[in-house]
Amino acid sequence: MVREKRKISTLAAGAAGSQTQTLLQEKDTEIEVLKAQLEELANSNGGGDGWNEIPIDAIKPLSIRSGSQSVYQPRKYFDPVALQELAESIKEDGLKEPIVVRDTPEGYEMMDGARRHEAHKVAGLVKIKAYIRQNISDEEALVYALTTDALKEKISPLEQAISVVDLLCLKLNLSETEVKRLLFAMQNDAIGKTNSDDRDETHHHKAQIAHGVLNSIGVALGTMVNSRLKFLDLAPKIRQALESGKISPTNALLINKVNDRHHNRLLKEGSLLSKKDLQGLIARLTKEDKSTGIELENAFTQNPNSIYEQSITRMQELSQSPLIQEDARARRMFLDIYERLNKLGKYVESKRS
């Protein structure tokens, strides 16, 4: 996903005020045209004048490049059982709805139909029916892909969050962090937590464009801020499990709130548990954590020297472990403990003086 500033779009440039409104109307019209084209293609009877058969291997995922950064196809995970069922249906009855690709100098790029494309691979087919669209810009391609996925409710909350933020990055020429900051500010204004009158014209200009994008794809600002953006902050291991369909979106968010030392267990059991059962397991683990903390506190009160000696011994053992040198995460954790000890030492010294 896009993490640096974009140079693709100039949509955020220009004057505010009436020009902003005109821009919004133009982009809304553009998206409505794309929706109409999608509906027209979906209702088409096919035939030589409407679609072509192209090689499966000639189609690549949608990839929008900006310097060293890229925006990729919104759709990434496909349920294997459903994919197999679709593959069997295609082998038996053929493809009822051709996919949509754009023609680029590097070849065909997927705009709509990634699941059907994957099903053809599963079915062992070498060609697929496709509508080929010419002269499609990066922004148009991403809007089209995101709009079709939103209309057909095909993408997960994580995929939607990534795609919407990427789209806003393109349109506003902002980084991911800046887009998230803008959306949070818009939500705070909407609920009265902050006063929008205190914000400058540039903010209002960007906020209007962001509202237009969200409205066009049917995503409420509150949903985006309170639900979707949370998925972008998932721990890598949890995000990977969600992307591969091993856990549900709800369970992913629940696990992400828990101390990371419990993640492996929760990811293993979370795939089999309902939301309620997972909440029960998390509550038990949290209670155990508190109990452990109380036990350590009592042990320190009774014999502080013992805790001190155990800590020193443990640090010495860890410092000699090859894993500390080989594993980046283990090394960061070790250095974090060392830094905390230094801070504690400085704090104690400051109290003595």
Structure characterization notes:
- Among the domains are: 18-171, Alpha-Beta Complex (Conserved hypothetical protein from pyrococcus furiosus pfu- 392566-001, ParB domain); 305-353, no CATH class.
- The chain is built from 15 helices and 7 strands.
- The chain starts with 17 loop residues before the first helix and ends with a helix.
- The chain has helices at residues 18-43, 80-93, 114-123, 138-152, 157-172, 176-190, 201-216, 221-226, 236-243, 249-256, 263-270, 275-302, 304-319, 322-326, 328-352, and strands at residues 52-55, 59-60, 63-66, 69-72, 99-104, 107-112, 127-133.
- It is α/β, with parallel strands linked by helices and 353 residues long.
- A 5-stranded mixed β-sheet has the order 1-7-5-6-2. A two-stranded antiparallel ribbon has the order 3-4.
- Residues 1-24 and 44-49 have low confidence and may be disordered.
